[in-house]
Design brief:
2 copies of one chain form a homodimer.
Chain A: H1 4-11, H2 15-23, H3 30-43, H4 49-56, E1 61-65, H5 76-90, E2 94-98, H6 103-112, E3 118-121, H7 131-137, E4 141-144, E5 154-158, H8 160-173, E6 178-183, H9 187-190, H10 195-210, E7 213-218, H11 223-235, E8 242-245, H12 248-261, E9 270-275, H13 277-283, E10 288-291, H14 294-310, E11 318-321, E12 325-326
Parallel strand pairs in A: 1-2, 1-3, 3-4, 4-5, 5-11, 6-7, 6-8, 8-9, 9-10
Antiparallel strand pairs in A: 10-12
Helix pairs in contact in A: 1-2, 1-3, 5-14, 6-7, 8-10, 11-12
The structure holds a DNA duplex (16 and 16 nucleotides).
Chain lengths: 335, 335
DNA sequence: CTGAAAGCGCTTACAG
DNA sequence: CTGAAAGCGCTTACAG
């Protein structure tokens, strides 16, 4: 492979001059620039990224820290990764995948190995152990997910609060006065302010404002449990016939259970939900839903990280991406 | 951050000696080694990966080339990525994500930028444009997916042939004499020998051997089309009541259509399928199936690539990972 | 067994 | 506007 020296020789200039046209940080006369560019083309030269990184102390690489095998139930993960990589490349950054089971360790190694200029932590939860080494080191990072205390690190997430508001509004506007709130298992709400809590709080607040009665239905983990729970509540005549769902597993299972029971949407039951676009595509779901905007979130994350790199001392950002409602007429108009 | 020079000074030795203990390629007396290790611990020194890469001309990084936004219907992609990253790390390699829309361009840039020692191409199909720049350069690579002509590049894939055989055997052993072969759209079989063709060929061959009549049902692309096609064939009394499925979209949709028609498995219809474990988990599918073994495939890919790096001139490998059948009693015994 | 020196391929002040 | 020199943090023959 040709080096900058080969190009310099070929063009009859010094290596510094070649470097000047490579980086574009210095004026070079059009003639010598042309000669250099011809040499580059002729030799098929391409800069050695590693050498440049060593000289500039910038790797132009971001690390994406994936949580311990979360792929288990996360059809959106691949979308996030691709979206992050695309957004990074657009800004001149490559992307490294860090999947170590011990997330905190992955972060520490990434920082000390100096392989990346910044870190993107995916799916951050309250009390996430990966925050520890980042907070300590002050390493440029961005969180995808919004814990109460971001430890002085920029963070971006879907605005779960307004997602809840939108769904409640949609149901209320159709004239419904009560709905089941099909939600995550109780444990998820214990760990402080997670996205689940934010969704829940807004849902109840808005429901109160709109005169909608919310009947909570916590759904346990596991396919059979999900199925059984849904079966039970859907057959209970005392339960509302409208479902407001914030639980991917429940949404995915719902069509099966409805099928089992011979129930139709929206004739027999009305359904609105918050779930990822990937889930909808995979399951061919046709419920009115708030999409989780993974691409927008990914782009915002990269943007925040670039901004942080450019201005290390700028104030910490907490950015919420506003979702939008996708209508699928799964709510019967009652008004 | 401490450098090797700091460590050397702290330990009272030369940088070469520190390097010797770092690389482990030279004997160092236990005493000086201990001193050096103490210095490393004290200074929290960690080798600068980039500098080492420049000196050794080895980046210890693999690039994973993802095809143009295949995430669209690929719940398995994330699993592959995580499995590849894990397998690579186990062997001392980091992993870079290359998602450029133009796959061939991504390959070219990765090679010329010297950011990676080897490339892993995901989801390779017949006539894949990414093969071109690899074949030309002879850059160490491995394909996940098995085109007829791998252009002299190592490749690994699920053994679709034996997958088909296993499914046919399973159905035939239960006494079935005919089955619908629910497959991909015809176009997919045109492009030469893809995984679909390999599956198909083996299915027919084995079916002939076992006296099973196979009725092909090509399923067009798109949720509505899939649904309509399944509806039609499931209602056609002339069609076999046994389904051998090799089409993720059809498998995913099947429970819905069966529900619509009030059909039960295995009472009314028998079903076997080839689909990814992720799909099964997402959809809570309960059909006897051959799993796509993404983790085993990922591990084999990394292994092949490492072997290639170690022995550049070793013979080209084509490795097929044998799948295994997961029983879910979705086939009614007729014998 | 340890160290001085050269080199990996770049960039960046600093002269001219 | 261009070039010579030093330096980024490592490793690796080569002496001793």
């Amino acid at each position: 492979m040709a080096t900058i020296g080969d190009v310099a020789r070929e063009a009859g200039v010094s290596r510094s001059t070649v470097s000047s046209v490579l980086t574009g940080r210095k004026y070079v006369t059009p003639e010598t620039r042309a000669r250099i560019e011809a040499a580059i083309a002729k030799l098929e030269y391409s800069v050695n990224t590693g050498a440049r990184a060593l000289a500039t102390a910038k790797t132009m690489t971001f690390g994406i820290v994936v949580r311990f095998h979360e792929a288990e139930f996360s059809p959106a993960l691949a979308t996030y990764l691709v979206a992050l990589s695309d957004a990074a490349r657009e800004r001149g950054y490559a992307v490294m995948l860090l999947t170590e089971a011990d997330g905190a360790e992955a972060v520490r190694r990434a920082i000390s190995g100096r392989q990346v200029d910044g870190l993107i932590l995916l799916n951050v939860v309250e009390g996430d152990p990966r925050l520890e080494p980042i907070g300590q080191s002050g390493f440029p990072s961005v969180l995808v997910g919004m814990p109460e205390d971001t430890r002085g690190v920029d963070a971006v997430d879907l605005d779960f609060g307004s997602a809840a508001t939108m769904l409640v509004d949609h149901v209320a506007a159709a004239g419904h006065r009560e709905a089941m709130f099909v939600r995550w298992p109780d444990e998820l709400y214990k760990g402080g302010s997670t996205y689940a809590t934010r969704f829940e709080r807004s849902a109840y607040r808005r429901a109160a404002e709109r005169g909608l009665r919310l009947v909570p239905v916590p759904v346990p983990v596991g396919p059979e449990q999900v199925r059984a729970t849904l079966r039970t509540v859907l057959q209970d005549p005392a339960k509302p016939r409208t479902l407001l769902i914030h639980n991917d597993a429940a949404v995915a299972m719902l069509p099966f259970v409805l099928g089992d029971l011979g129930l139709e949407v929206p004739a027999d039951r009305s359904v609105v939900s918050l779930h990822s676009a990937e889930l909808a595509r995979l399951y061919v779901l046709s419920y009115t839903a708030v999409e989780s905007e993974s691409t927008a979130v990914a782009q915002a994350a990269v943007e925040l990280l670039c901004r942080r790199l450019a201005a290390p001392d700028s104030p910490v950002q907490r950015q919420l991406v506003t979702p939008h409602l996708e209508e699928k007429s799964s709510v019967a108009p009652l008004a």
